[in-house]
Specification:
This protein has 64 residues and is mainly alpha-helical. The chain has one domain. Helix content is 66%, strand content 0%. It is globular and about 30 Å long. The protein starts with 10 loop residues before the first helix and ends in a 5-residue tail after the last helix. 14% of the residues are buried.
């Protein structure tokens, strides 16, 4: 059964960033992980680009 909850604007991206942060610690940072987050949270291409930028910052030791 699909989740039909209506979320506030940007909530899906916020949840994806939190999920990516946790999964990245456990599984290692990868662009495949970003693709999985995009599918899991039904993100737009623009949101996926944001996650790629987020991943690059994390891989380079910066904070997001």
């Amino acid at each position: 059964m699909a989740d039909t909850t209506i979320l506030p604007k940007g909530e899906d991206l916020r949840r994806a960033v939190l999920w990516l942060s946790e999964e990245g610690k456990d599984r290692g940072w990868s662009f495949g992980l970003v693709a999985e987050a995009s599918r899991r949270f039904n993100l737009s291409p623009k949101d996926e680009e944001f996650l790629i930028h987020f991943l690059n910052q994390r891989k380079n030791g910066g904070s997001a």
